[in-house]
Predict the structure of Potassium-transporting ATPase potassium-binding subunit.
Amino acid sequence: MENMIGQCLLYIALLALLAWPLGIYMGKVMDGEQLWLQKIIGPCERGIYRVMGIDPTEQMGWKRYLCCVLLFSIVSIALLMLLLMTQRSLPLNPQGIADTSWDLALNTAVSFVTNTNWQAYSGESAMSYLAQMAGLTVQNFVSAAAGIAVLFALIRGLRAGNAKGMGNFWADATRATLYILVPLSLALSLLLIWQGVPQNFAAYKTVALLEPLADDNGVKIAEQMVPMGPQASQVAPKQLGTNGGGYNGVNSAHPHENPTPLANLLEMLSLLLIPAGLCFTFGRQIGDMRQGAAIFIAMTLLLTAAIGFTAWAEQSATPQLAQAGQVDLAARAAPLAQAGGNMEGKETRFGVANSALWAAATTAASNGSVNAMHDSLTPLGGLVPMVLMQLGEVVFGGVGSGLFGMLAFVLLTVFMAGLMVGRTPEYLGKKVEPYEMKMAVVICLTTPVVILAGAGLMSLVPQVVESLNNSLPHGFSEILYTATSAGANNGSAFGGLNANTPFINVLLSALMLAGRFIPIAAILAIAQSMKGKKVLARSAGTLSTCNGMFVFLLVFVVLLVGALSFFPALALGPVAEHLQMAR
């Protein structure tokens, strides 16, 4: 247990150490300040502006900014669908992989464009190299860049000054891609290649097994197909952009995507690095680093609690495993002693600690990549990833989207605190009035409404229920997790549910679109409203939004909204399953 605690603390310390300087750098990039990278990337940036006819200094209002986000996303969905539905006739397909169906193409395109990266397919058997590179990997970059762009539109609305607009979406997305996502992904790709992640265009290889196996029918299996292809270049942006869509079906549990303990650490740090850094970017942009630090601390407290609870649940395992002698709860220090814990669905090279840490981090962020199968977590261990997503993925959350979602909770907290003391609520010197509160409530409640509506619809369809591998509480947990993953734009899966059907593909596409673009529209409306307000002088009665009390209130409000919204559904799923096991 001490080793587990040490690993978790090391992870959080490294994350904070790397996030601070990265946050400062990202602020300089998005403000267009002079950087040494401009000597290398600057000509490419200016070339993009010329080809697209963009004036990077042009300012947009919130409606035009939103229209640009929507137009870019619609075109991206259409082009990606076209690529997936014609991949068999296109080059870079040495395995002759077939075209996808229209509903799977729609689901996949919407998934990657909304930064969800839900996968109703197994990547190595359903996607050609061209589809992986020109389709999915490209969206790993630009969908993340769109989230960063929207965040900076909000920041410009919140900070002091009377700018004419909230920036230019095309310039913001271009800078985020070229100066943040591409350099970081290039560095991480090289590190992963060094650790053994494949990066080639070779056909899949057939290799002999060291120990031949027999299938359920007694047929001997002596060979295995080993996927090749450009894997490192997709794994890097999938982690850094909080995308999570794996090159292989089992994602980062596959030894190609995640071959070593060092690769595992690098990928875990990457999936939270940019969202954590953006907290400090926010502090820098508004001229008060304490504000960014307060949000970072609130997120870190929630993440630490989630990691700790998941690790405890998986280390303790279930009563059935303990009774069968499969778990040594005392975790004796003898070299050959079983260290305890639920190892079902986990890689032995990572163990309980790294699997629990990854499960919490990937659902705290809008990432969704996995290095263990979440369906095999204990009921309480599986509850934590669901809760983290159901909170709106604001515990760091997606690139850009996590922080602007948390800022909606900040406005809600400021408003509630103002009611308690009888003062007009203010944030960063600007009054928070009914219009901003309406939009903040829309953001905070979109995720619960979308998730619960989706889970309810799936539970009512007999074909969905019949396709489950499990019944009773765990079966409902699989449905709830699927709706949660789509509605919260996460993309991880519990498994046990046949998700590749026309009904589920279309339904999840609708959930992903609503979960992504309704909050974006509301946050841009808030940015426009706040931008035009005067900054008030600070007085003795002004509520501090960067002290310990406010951090506590913010954490309380985030948990309160989640608890009130999802407790009944969770009680029918993981809570009921845990009580059933404990009898």
About this structure: The longest helix spans residues 548-582. The mean pLDDT is 90. Residues 23-204+241-260 form one domain.
